[in-house]
Amino acid sequence: MKKEIELLAPGGDVDSIKAAILAGANAIYCGLDKFNARSQAKNISLKDLNGILRLAHKNDCEVFLTLNIIIVEREIPALIDLLNKLVKTKLDGIIIQDLGVFYLINKYFPTLNIHASTQMTTHNEGQIKFLSKLNATRVNLSRELNINEITALTSAAHENNLLTEVFVHGSNCISFSGLCYMSSVTGGNSGNRGQCSQPCRDEYLTTAEGKNFPLNIKDNSAFSDLKILADAGVDSIKIEGRIKKYHYVYTVVETWRKQLQSFYEQDKINKDNSELRKVFNRDFSNSFLQGDMSRNIFIDNPRDNSAIHLAKNWVGSKDENLTKAKKVLFEQKSKIIDNVKDRIDKLSIKKAPLLISLIGEAGELLSVSVKTPETSFIMNSNLNLVTADKSKAHPLDQEIVLKRFKALNDTEYFIEKLDLENLKGDLFIPLKELTLIKNEILFLLNDSKDVVKAVQVPVLEKQDDKKITASLSLLISSETDLDLCDETSADIYFQIPNSFKHKLSYFIELFKNNKRLIPWFPAVLMGENYTAAIELLQQVQPERIVTNNSGIAFIAYEEGISWTAGPYMNLVNSYSLLCLKEHFNCAGAFISNEINAQQIKKIVKPDNFKLTYSISHPIVLMTTIACMFHQVSGCKKNIVDDKCIQRCENSASITNLKDISYFIDKEKGGYHTVYNETNFLNTDIISDIPDMFSNFFIDLRDIKTGTNVDADKAKTVKLFENHLNGSSDSITALNQKIQPSTNTQYTRGI
């Protein structure tokens, strides 16, 4: 018998959740009105959560709650308050991204099942082990992985007691998840905060290849790939769509449920995806899964493709066919909407009623009868009732009992009726006895499990201000810049590209022969390149490294190598730093450039932990494995293969309709990266936040943007060193030499 795969559906609002249940979802992921990565969705309220859980569980459907954004310091108390409420529910899992949330749940709320969000871009075995050490129970794998990589990582996950889930349908991001800052930088709407405004879907001036939507890719659909996913051992297949309406959710979930049933019962995969094409889509592609990174992944139209697809094989004029197709689809959609709406309206998320009766008389035990729609039970007090002495204590009445039993209303139940008619006379019992009875009722209503008590998380205390003399560090990526080792005492990081397996021996020799160089690992290291990174660490045995990849962080921890968390690990709160220090012996970290001065100031630095902040760098907007030159400047090859990644070195630019340009850079061994028009330069932070940072960082790689640096690298380094040393002229000189520049993120934050 085949292992059953979980069908995981989106629930953007109550109607969509009901639709997913009706369509046969095994599990639903949904978010509250805050702390989740789909703030544009209607989402659900906390008061509705218990009713939703009751409805879902009655239909053998689990519910996972998304808390998958990065959390700034001022939000921590509200987050803890929410976790104290959630831990008392029957939630089946919490989906998270922020390492600070990992820390808090592990330490204070260990009964919650942790699911690692797709925002963590999990793509190598070290990251699986990293998450396992943080007690994650499942991981959503990176969408860029092919089936062979998924198979290997699923095996590794199972060995480390994790389940895997894979997105199989819906909107797709061109950027690696968690590593897209385009919306944040361009409009202040951070994708890591669930506020993405999707500038990648915007229209741009026509490119040399004749494209107007050069960053827009097709929707993901692995409908015909179910068997290979099952063979890979994947535990859950996940549908995207928390901002989609209920008729979309119903159609897609039902279609996938039928596909699963066909596979289980007949070992048959249905190739007909016509039902999926009736609802919103940007055409479909399974290029990531198949490892077929061709130009076919793109579509020069971000709008609904369903009518275009329906009309394309009809005889007649294009416009007439399109009009006819839209009418046909409207009629079909209307039928679906009417049918599904009628059915979901019959489902209720009301909590279940409790009928509670108190029975007794003086000299006897108090008897409490509780009835629910499913069961009933009776319990007795430990103490006898006594006749109330009204001069000393108030007798039992509705107000007292309801006040003492009010916690029952915070469950999947509510007190519909409290009957005291069978209490004979004015009676008294100590309030603590009522509390014991209330706790016993909660225990039985909670499937005979103890209800978790609320915890008080200690407030982190800032250390006494100590004078810190900050140093400078810089990043290079070319041997031509090695002479800087003789020009400055600053720490010099050397970037390792995303794909360097074929040049492993070169990098081993480079670091062995240049002891001043500190390895800088990128955020994405897949497959053999991750294996090459491990070998590099083992052969070079560097004193310390900087890594933007949690898998390499785990290996450094295991190997006893001092490591610093890089700027693309998205660290924005004190608890994320504690997580890295206490769980992985991290020596220091970059604070994310997404947050502003006030958000930075509230962070409490752990003892013996060094903080770094980047004050000058080209601003990364997104990183993708797809070839952007297919859409922008042209590329003779149809498909991205290993040779492309190794050998291609190119650049281009695109300009949107607001006349804002973005720069595309592809280095040998690297993936395509989109950079902001102007570089980041922040000369204010050194005086604004003194004695917090041990190190300030500048990026000196040769990346073409709209910013001009009117000084050679040695002189640029000297200017920054002068600034750190308090030179009064340094700020003016830096702003004159590096222009134009921006520090909007530092002033705006998230």
Report on the architecture of this protein.
- The chain has 750 residues and is α/β, with parallel strands linked by helices.
- It has 3 domains: 6-172 and 217-344, Aldolase class I (TIM Barrel, Alpha-Beta Barrel), CATH 3.20.20.70; 352-445, no CATH class; 471-617 and 683-711 and 723-728, Aldolase class I (TIM Barrel, Alpha-Beta Barrel).
- Helix content is 33%, strand content 22%.
- The chain contains 25 helices and 34 strands.
- An 8-stranded parallel beta barrel has the order 1-2-3-4-5-6-7-9, surrounded by 6 helices. Strands 18-19-20-21-22-23-24-31 form an 8-stranded parallel β-barrel.
- Helix 20 links the parallel strand 23 and strand 24.
- Helix 1 runs parallel beside helix 9.
- It is globular, with a radius of gyration of 29 Å.
- The two termini are 49 Å apart.
- The model has no long low-confidence stretch (mean pLDDT 94).
